[in-house]
Amino acid sequence: MPGRVEFYKLCKRFVDEKDVPAEVQQLEYYALAIGHHIGVVDCLASIMAMDKEAYFKWISKLPRGKARSKLEGLARWGELEINKEHVPVLIAALEEANASFLPEEKQWTDCLLRLLYAMEKEPAIYLVVRLSEGASDYCRQRTDGR
């Protein structure tokens, strides 16, 4: 089961100026303020990466529930978004399971917890988690019926 899992954090946003006429410049500020993605480009920065097998071993140590299900969704979808709505359950699950993590898993947990705490203070931040196998492999699997 080769592959890599990579975590990305929203690092900045900008509006594609060619899509926003000058007479609706207020729309630009409104779109940025509420986070709509029409004409808004999100720039993501890689913050953490690990082998796919290590990722699933790590999250298998989380207690069963919403947080674990959320992170296990990566196997099905190949990508997932973590936003402000997911923060409380993820923090609780990571803190509960922290004693069972191996040293490297504790480093990942500490990194993810720092990001989640930052998201509590600034809800516009979000994370994207992706499998390196990408959409083409995912689509091929789905069309093969697997």
Extract low-pLDDT stretches: 134-146
Query: Helix count?
Result: 6
Portion in beta strands: 15-25%
Number of structural units classed as domains? 1
Order of helices and strands: EHEHHEHHEH
Strand order of the largest sheet: 2-1-4-3
The helix-and-strand class reads alpha+beta
Broad shape:
globular
Query: Average pLDDT value?
Result: 79
Question: What is the chains' assembly state?
Answer: single chain
Helix content: 40-55%
Total strands: 4
Tags for this model:
6 helices; globular; 4 strands; alpha+beta; 23% strand; single chain; four-stranded antiparallel sheet; 146 residues
Write a structural description.
- With about 150 residues, this protein is α+β, with helices and mostly antiparallel strands.
- The chain has one domain (about 5-10, about 45-145).
- The protein is built from six helices and four strands; from the N terminus they run E-H-E-H-H-E-H-H-E-H.
- The protein has helices at about 25-35, 50-60, 65-75, 85-95, 105-120, 135-145, and strands at about 5-15, 40-50, 80, 125-130.
- It has a four-stranded antiparallel sheet.
- Helix 4 (about 85-95) runs antiparallel to helix 5 (about 105-120).
- The protein is globular, with a radius of gyration of 17 Å.
- The model is unreliable at about 135-145 (pLDDT under 50).
